[in-house]
Amino acid sequence: MTGRIPERFIDELLTRIDIVDVIQERVTLKKAGRDWSARCPFHDERSPSFTVSPAKQFYHCFGCGAHGSAIRFLMDYDRLEFPDAIEELAARAGLKVEYEGGQRDKPREDASDLYALLDAAATFYREQLARSAGARAYFEQRGLDVETLKRFNLGYAPNQWDALKTALGTTPQRLALLDKAGMLASGDRGGKYDRFRDRVMFPILDRRGRTIAFGGRIISSDRPDRVDQEADSPARTSDKSPGPKYLNSPETPLFHKGRELFGLWQARDANPKIARLLVVEGYMDVIALHQYGITQAVATLGTATTSDHAEILFRNSADVYFCFDGDRAGRQAAWRAVESVLPRMRDGRQAWFLFVPDGEDPDSLIRAEGVDGFEQRLRQATPLSEFFFAETGKDVNLATIDGKARLAERARPLIGQIPDGAFRDLMYTELERRSGARTVLPGGTAQVDIRATARLGGGRPAQRSLVRTAVALLVQSPALAAEIEPPWTFSELRQPGISLLVELIRLCRERPTLTTGALLEQFAGREEAVALNKLATLDLLVDAGQGRADFIGALAQLDVQTSQQRLDDLIARQLAGGLSDSERDELRQLMANKPAHRKR
């Protein structure tokens, strides 16, 4: 894929970076044996539970579950996107980031030009605001002060077809960039004109404070104060209708509305550490809350809460409040938010839902009730778990067996999306209390097998999983994969976790410089990630030599189990009368090698 950072470059980068140095610049670490420890920077705690392993190039918090490589730490701590974290580490290591397809310099130059052009557009709109008495009167009527206008860089698009085009599109190249940035629209005959006209303008910033798009609001309109998506059909030059009340920039190389949040840059700028985030629906809701001192407000951009939004929200704060209208549409929007955040509700994260009265919005509430009144509403917000069971239990008669079964049927698949941890366990417990239906966790998958919590090497567990043993040893010492050559007979074994073990071995052999942290980075976002992280933190109580012996021994035992599986298969087929000559020879050979005492 053009523009993608090659995995080999990421591997090389992580081998050149010491995760201890990266974290120690941001968090005070103390030596603790072979590792380093600190109070976790991702949740409040009194005693250190955050550990950094220089041997594994990996960090883990035993309190909130945060974990990963140096890349993940920068993403979570400095709130960087993946490419930005790579750029940061590469600069530290003296490397130039590589991109696949030979597309590296030109796209970045093009992006720089787009950023510069959009910043120039924001400046143009701000200057036009100073010249428009009507636009200034609108903001004054909405109660915005000069400092707030400056903080959000608000502006005005003149009521002309080509004001911005004339001001900035001075060359064919600049016109092409304006079009690429979504600032122009097309007429029936292919002509280009300003997309935003006679609107107060709200610059949309990325997480580095760069202008990437705009929202524009018609000054006079009696439609609901919410962001509307632009119509897909091209605008007509002869159409004099004002269009939707709110108009966002279209999708561009810089702007994807499902990944951006209005006001996030301002929230991060005002709060070195964001204790909470409040998600509202309108630009003016965000701006009013910020002006009144609630500087943690953000808004989606005319879309429902997406999975990308949920990830960004929790990356910036562990506590998220969703504020919606109390009508049917508002509750539907809240439920879509639930569906997006559930897969990201790892321990330590919390979500609440606040529904405002009919005819009100956060803008009007903060002005009518003040900060104290609004904070009181937040304190009374509905926890995610309560809203979840209220919605899944809607129209269900829990006094009947059928109703309880329906609740269990609705809720189980959704709860199953929650990451492994205390919150998921408690949600299952609550579902069992409400429905009376005992929950049996899904079986037959790799992650179920390796999630067992028995400590490897300690005590005498009732049954030790050879697969789990091999995976744990390999995750902690990826170089062990070089000890065995293909083919691997055990790959045919029908047992939970085998496919994951084979995938890990192949990955480690293909990329022999992998550390534990880099290996886990490859599984970020996959369902196996939580289980692999747990295995990476286990104290195996073995040295390098014993670990190698245990790994090879576990694989040898898996080979024995594979032979027994094949023997059982052939015997079953023989009883059914279906063996070929070659299979009979194979059966005889396996019977000849069969151990005298087999453990079942």
What does this structure look like?
- This protein has 600 residues and is of the alpha+beta class.
- The protein folds into five domains: 7-102, Zinc finger, CHC2-typedomain (DNA Primase, Chain A, Alpha-Beta Complex); 105-255, Alpha-Beta Complex (DNA primase DNAg catalytic core, N-terminal domain), CATH 3.90.980.10; 259-391, 3-Layer(aba) Sandwich (Dna Topoisomerase Vi A Subunit, Chain: A, domain 2); 393-435, Pheromone ER-1, CATH 1.20.50; 447-592, DNAb Helicase, Chain A (Orthogonal Bundle), CATH 1.10.860.10.
- Helix content is 46%, strand content 11%.
- The chain has 24 helices and 16 strands.
- It has helices spanning 7-16, 19-24, 70-77, 82-93, 105-131, 133-141, 146-151, 163-168, 172-180, 264-270, 283-291, 307-316, 328-341, 362-379, 384-392, 401-415, 422-435, 446-450, 466-476, 498-510, 516-521, 529-537, 544-575, 581-592; strands spanning 30-32, 35-38, 50-53, 58-61, 67-68, 155-157, 184-186, 192-194, 199-205, 211-218, 246-248, 277-280, 297-299, 319-325, 350-356, 382-383.
- The strands form four sheets. The chain has a five-stranded antiparallel beta sheet with strand order 1-2-3-4-5. It has a five-stranded mixed beta sheet with strand order 13-12-14-15-16, sandwiched between helices. Strands 6-9-10-11 form a four-stranded antiparallel beta sheet, covered by helices on one side.
- The chain is globular, with a radius of gyration of 29 Å.
